[in-house]
Every structure is written in structure tokens, then in C-alpha cells.
Amino acid sequence: xxxxxxxxxxxxxxxxxxxxxxxxxxxxxxxxxxxxxxxxxxxxxxxxxxxxxxxxxxxxxxxxxxxxxxxxxxxxxxxxxxxxxxxxxxxxxxxxxxxxxxxxxxxxxxxxxxxxxxxxxxxxxxxxxxxxxxxxxxxxxxxxxxxxxxxxxxxxxxxxxxxxxxxxxxxxxxxxxxxxxxxxxxxxxxxxxxxxxxxxxxxxxxxxxxxxxxxxxxxxxxxxxxxxxxxxxxxxxxxxxxxxxxxxxxxxxxxxxxxxxxxxxxxxxxxxxxxxxxxxxxxxxxxxxxxxxxxxxxxxxxxxxxxxxxxxxxxxxxxxxxxxxxx
Length: 327
Ligand SMILES: NC(=O)c1ccc[n+]([C@@H]2O[C@H](COP(=O)([O-])OP(=O)(O)OC[C@H]3O[C@@H](n4cnc5c(N)ncnc54)[C@H](O)[C@@H]3O)[C@@H](O)[C@H]2O)c1
Hints:
Mean pLDDT: 97
Bound molecules: nicotinamide-adenine-dinucleotide
Shape: globular
Number of domains: 2
Strand content: 25-35%
Number of strands: 16
Number of helices: 11
EC number: 1.4.1.1
Family: Belongs to the ornithine cyclodeaminase/mu-crystallin family. Archaeal alanine dehydrogenase subfamily.
Protein name: Putative alanine dehydrogenase
Active site: 69 (proton donor/acceptor)
Helix content: 25-40%
């Protein structure tokens, strides 16, 4: 038996944004129906090197997909010409445990995060949403926009980044690739005045103010994915319907972790999990006026679902290198 090895370039060519959205939506549905196994992420800390390593296992029975993502965050890696975040996904055969594929998961991490944002927009944003605002224009912003545009007919893009060059590059990309019209200046208040607001910064002190968020907005809070991180003023959460990807992860490390820790909000303030809504077990948005917040921390089921899709495609297209790993 052989194990298929796939590089980042090969992975990129094997899955489209629409396919990623579909795979991740199905993963959320299976998760919502309780048809998955997903133990909590486990962490190793390399404190002297300012880094950590996380393992993220999952099993989605309905699509016979199982495996583990191994992902690091090393904040000083730029000095060594390496990305801050690098991921590897090992896919196994659930019947035998055999490692059927080992692939780069770095691009897939950004892709599946974009897909989670897109699925949240599908179920939570107003049907007539036309403008999308970004706070933070780094790596995640690109996959968020690429996958979000498939869910609503956005016409206007607004953006803010402390690094104005990054903002300008992002707006240029969005206008060129998706035809959205850039509006406003590099002003966070303007970026937050949109039908959908996507936040993708690594901040630990909230930067999005309550007074800037109008009724009917949907917010994808993507940036907070570790304890202590928070992008939105807690007052926003108090007037919003809060949807998390997973209570255990979000309460530990998502947008809600600090407000929970400070007792500004409690578990009763959380409406539910996105998977439950996708599975049709509870409604998503129920009025045009409500503010909805999706707190994304990133689930292993998202990674394994997109990796399985990539693997199936690679077999059809005969891509990658197969090696007898047990030899
Ligand atoms: N939810 C998830 O599943 C998930 C997945 C991957 C990454 N993340 C998180 O998303 C965040 C962004 O990741 P990335 O890969 O895009 O990083 P990145 O470094 O590529 O981009 C971050 C951007 O935020 C900007 N920024 C920083 N501080 C800011 C501030 N105060 N105001 C405005 N802009 C500011 C930076 O200039 C940069 O352009 C990180 O916190 C990361 O951990 C979450």
C-alpha cells in the first residue's frame, strides 16, 4: 500500500473555493448532528523559541474521513524565512488506520477558515447584504473574501489595516478579482459600517467599537483563536446573537474567551453552534435588525473535510508522489 504525498502547489490546484465551501458546510452539518469525533486540540509550548505546536484530530463518519492536522505558530519565523504558521495533514483510512495521504495543510488552513466565514454568511448575514468590511488585511482576509463572495452579491468593499500598504494591496486584489468597488478611506469606523464585517487581526485589546456596528450587521470574528485574544468590544456581544463554531474551543480561545473570563457575558448569552444551525436544528438569522456574531476558532473537522476532497481529486488527476511508507 502506498501513501500519497502532496505539496502546497498541488493542493492549491486540487480544490476550488466553491468545493471548499461545500466540504466545510457538510462538515459543520455532520458536527451539528453529532456524527463526528473531534477531541480538543492539544498544545505543546516551545517558550524559548516563541512557538507552539497543536495537533487537531477528527473523524467524519459520513464521508469516511479521518486524520490529524499538525500546526505550529512561531511568531519569529519571518526572520528565518519561514511562515509563522505551517500545517501538515495526515489522512488515515478509518477501516485500517493506514496513512493514505500526507499533505501540506498551510494553504488548506486559510482556505477552510475562509469557508467557515462563508458558511456563517450563508446562514447568518442578511439576504440583501451588499457591503463587506474588513478589519485586518493579512493572509486570512484573502481567503475570507474569496469564499464569502460566493454567498452574497456583494458590491462594495471597505477595509482597514494599521499597515496602509496591506490595505491598498487587498483592495486592489478584491476589485481586480471580484469586481467589488472600494469605498472609504483607511478608517476603521468606515470599515465597520458594512452589512458584513470580517475581523482578521491578532489583537488582544478590542479595536472594533460598539458604537460603529449598526443594526442588521453580521460579524465574522476570525482573528481571536487563542486565550487572551479579543477584537470586538464586549458591548457588541451583549447586543448580538452569538454563534460559535464550538463551545469548548471558543470559550477557551475564541472571541468570547476574555468576556467570559471577565464575567461580562455568560454561557446563556451564547445562542448556539454554527453546525446546529447548518444541520437545521435551530434557526440562524431571524430578523433584518439583529446583529449576529460568528466566533470562529477553527475546527479539525473543517481541515479533514477539505483534505479528503483534495485526496480524492489527487487520485483522479494522478497528482502527487506515492511512497511505500511501511517498506
Ligand atoms: N479562526 C480561525 O480558524 C483562524 C485561522 C487562522 C488564523 N486565525 C487568526 O487570524 C488572525 C490573522 O491571521 P493572518 O494569518 O491573517 O495574519 P497576518 O499577519 O497575515 O494578518 C494580520 C493583519 O492584521 C493587521 N493588524 C494587526 N494589528 C492591527 C490593528 N490593531 N488594527 C488593524 N489591523 C491590524 C496586520 O497589519 C496584518 O495585515 C490571527 O490572530 C490568527 O491567529 C484564525
